[in-house]
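DM from R.C. (forwarded with permission)

"hey, sorry to bug you on a friday — could you get me a structure for this? deadline for the figure draft is monday and I only need the backbone to look sensible"
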Amino acid sequence: MHELNEADFNKQVDLLQDRIEHALDASGLDLDMELVEGSLVLILAEGPRLVVGRQPASREVWLTAPDATRHFGYVPDEGWLHDCDDEPLERVLSQILAELTGEELELDLEEE
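My reply, with the result:
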């Protein structure tokens, strides 16, 4: 994974969280979103919560879902990739949300 300095790390996480918010607003899913102490909390109407949180010490983003916490590192020109299988965060988040809501979902977190 690419080592970001703290300022660049925070900038990339802020951008990621903003893109997630916009993509989910456009998706039509029934959920609420809150920004709490640097973490984006997704609250599904069915009850489960997901958290997209920053881990500055390890320069990772952690996606916490009801079944597990997944760690993602930043790779330039590729984005946030899962530390076990290099799966993009947007694909993993889409799959988790689809499983929890029963709705097909494909988030696009690319630059507009």
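R.C.: lifesaver. The chain has two helices and six strands.
me: no worries. The two ends are 24 Å apart (CA to CA).
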